[in-house]
Specification:
about 40% helix; about 350 residues; Isopropylmalate Dehydrogenase; two-stranded antiparallel ribbon; alpha/beta
């Protein structure tokens, strides 16, 4: 029996609650497939700062590097907002991404038929939406130097090298080959030199993928088009800050940010997490939606371990859960036959996984 080592970073706010439910589902599916999972917990975020004075202790980096994948919940909260930047929870996450060389972030956006009314857009606009945002994760303005904040002036630097653009573009084109063979590269090449290099480089990479159609779109237009006609998109390729914004916008097409998973890859160890934050305002109330985290665990099985059958079981269990009218509080107004707590969601989906 194969055994996979999983570094578990629960984090802050609702992080521990949603991770516990994902582990519940993972344990259920592993008992029905020919593999086992060995978990090792590690600290990151505000909880890590409170205990160690560091939002990303070296021990956590070591545990992550020694694992086959990292399953992560969420970090941050108002409690730590006034800390120096190098001590804030978000800095720990940025450092982990950089240290593990997780340069490619995949954020799938799928609208479940049962939840077309949950979207703020008209059902005929969102029904059938199935797109993937491929976001460059370790470059761009979040990491560029120099950067400084003064009393009357502050600045950040957006930097991309050609090699950084090539490697993320290849990830997007390879993903498109497994989908509908379309890549839309999003930039701001009409005003930014860094985007001009981005566009030129993506076009060069596209020559190696003649079966994949490439289009370009300015980021402001892309933001509008995601609302106007999201079904036009297959794979959206973009940089760090644009991808951060557009993927959050796209998440609301689905009806709830609590539904959408993500994976960050590129180095030897990938990181799998829901795209939402730590939601400290609802922590401990048992109302957080763990589906995005459970779906992230499915992505981990599929892409980190190659356990396709197990991942298919989880994905089908989530679909059945929604089809049968189970909802979390954030989706209670949309076809709910039964509103479930966080732990009930995990238990029901785990039970379904065993019966598929």
């Amino acid at each position: 029996m194969k055994t996979y080592k999983v570094a578990v970073i629960k984090g802050d706010g609702i992080g521990p609650e949603i991770i516990d439910e994902a582990i519940k589902v993972l344990d259920a599916v592993s008992t029905n497939e020919d593999f086992s999972l060995k978990y090792e917990e590690a600290l990151m975020g505000g909880c890590a700062y409170d205990l160690t004075g560091d939002p990303l202790p070296q021990e956590t980096i070591d545990i992550a590097r020694d694992s086959d994948a990292v399953l992560f919940g969420a970090i941050g909260g108002e409690k730590w907002d006034n800390l120096p930047r190098d001590k804030r929870p978000e800095t720990g996450l940025l450092k982990l991404r950089s240290t593990l060389e997780l340069y490619a972030n995949f954020r799938p956006v799928k609208v479940y038929d049962e939840l077309v009314d949950a979207s703020s857009l008209k059902p005929e606009i969102v029904k059938g939406v199935d797109l993937l945002v491929v976001r460059e994760l370790t470059g761009g303005i979040y990491f560029g130097q120099p950067r400084e904040k003064g009393e009357t002036k502050a600045y950040n630097t957006m930097v991309y090298t050609k090699d950084e653009i090539v490697r993320i573009a290849k990830q997007a084109f390879e993903a498109a080959k497994l989908r509908r063979n379309k890549v839309c590269s999003v930039d701001k090449a009409n005003v930014l030199e860094v985007s001009q290099l981005w566009r030129e480089t993506v076009e060069e990479v596209a020559k190696d993928y003649p079966d994949v159609a490439l289009t370009h779109m300015y980021v402001d237009n892309a933001a509008m088009q995601l609302v106007r006609d999201p079904k036009q998109f297959d794979v959206i390729l973009t940089g760090n800050i644009f991808g951060d914004i557009l993927s959050d916008e796209a998440s609301m097409i689905s009806g709830s940010i609590g539904l959408l998973p993500s994976s960050s890859v590129g180095g030897e160890v990938g990181l799998y997490e829901p795209i939402h934050g730590s939601a400290p305002d609802i922590a401990g109330q048992g109302i957080a939606n763990p589906i995005a985290t459970i779906a992230s665990a499915s992505m981990m099985l599929r892409f980190a371990f190659g356990e396709t059958k197990a991942a298919d079981r989880i994905d089908k269990a989530i679909e059945d859960f929604l089809a049968e009218g189970y909802r979390t509080k954030d989706l209670a107004s949309f076809g709910a036959k039964e509103v479930c707590s966080t732990t009930e969601v995990g238990s029901i989906i785990a039970d379904k996984v065993c019966k598929i």
